[in-house]
Amino acid sequence: MYKKILIAFIFMTALFFPMANSFSEELAIDNVTRPEKDKGPTKVEVELYVLDIDNVDTAMQNFDMNLFFRIGWHDPRLAGLNKEKVNMPLEKIWHPHLQFINQQRVWYTFDKNVDIYPSGDVIYSQRLWGSFSQPLELRDFPFDKQTFNAILVPAGYNSDEVQLVSGGKDISGIASRFSVADWEILGWSTGPWDPQMPGRRANNNAYAMTIEAQRHANFFVLQLIVPLIFIVMMAWTVFWIDPQQSGTQIMVSVTAMLTLIAFRFTAGVTLPRFDYLTRLDYFILASTIQVFASLVEVITSSWLARRNKLALARRLDKISRWVFPISFAILAYITLF
Q1: Which of 106, 177, 233, 278 shows a CA-CA span of 20 to 30 A to 256?
Q2: Same domain, yes or no: 103 and 223
Q3: What span, in angstroms and rounded, lies between the C-alpha atoms of 316 and 318?
C-alpha cells in the first residue's frame, strides 16, 4: 500500500514539476514595467508600409487602407532566456500598447505574437485592413489635394517614457499602385507626428505615415461640368429667336430652367454634402444664375415687343448674345480655376 502511494506521489511530482517550472518562468517575465525605466525613455523603432488604399469616402471623411507595420524595442530582461529566437504572445511581455488613433474599424491578419531574440531585442509584426478617419478640406473640390494619415501612439505613455523613432532598417513605404482609381499619389513620408493642438501639450509621442494625393477630376468634369455648360448654352439660344415669337422664347427658357433643376437633383445624389461651398458648388450656382437671368431677359424682351418697342427688344437680344457668354466664361474661370 505504501509503495503504491509513494509511486503515485513520485509520478504526480514529476508531472507537476515542469508545469510549476514553466509557470515560475512566466512569472519571472515582467509584462507591466517598461524596460530600464530609470535610464530614460524606451526607444521603439517603427516601420510602416502601405500595401493598398482601396476606397476614399469623401462624404464620410474616411478611407480604407491595407497596412503592414513592424515595431521593435530592446528589453534586457529578456536577454539570454533562450539560445534561439522564440515566439511568444504579445500580452506575455511588456509592450508599448501602440494604437492607430484615427482607426475606425480594423481587422488584424497575423497572430498577436512577438519574436524575442537572445540579445533581448523584441520584434512585433502585424498586418491590418480597415477604415481610418481623415478630416478633409474640400473647398477646392473636385480639384482638391488631400493628406491621408495613419497615426500610431503609445497608449498610456508620454514622450518622456516611450519615444517612437524610424527603424534602422527602414522598410517604410507604399505600394507602387493602389486600387483606388480616382486619386493620384503625389508623395509620402514617415516620421514623428505633431498633432498641433492649440492650447494643449501632446503627452503621447506619435508616429505617422503621411500620403499626399490629388483627386482625378475627369469624372466630375465629364458627368457634371460639361452637361451643365450645355444646359446654360441651351438657355442662350433664346437670344437668336425673334422677340415677336415670345411663346417660343419663354418655352425654351422654362425648359432650360426645368432641366437645370432636374440636373441639380441628380447631382445632389452624387456630390458629398458639406456645411460650406466648394468650387463645384459655386460653378453650379453661377450656372443657375445664368439660366435664370436668361429667363428674365426673355420676359423683358417679350414685354418690350408687346409694347411696340421691337427694335429695343432686338437690340437687347443682340447685346445678350455677347454679355451672357462672356460673363459666364468669367464666372467659370473664377469658380473652377
Answers
A1: 278
A2: no
A3: 5
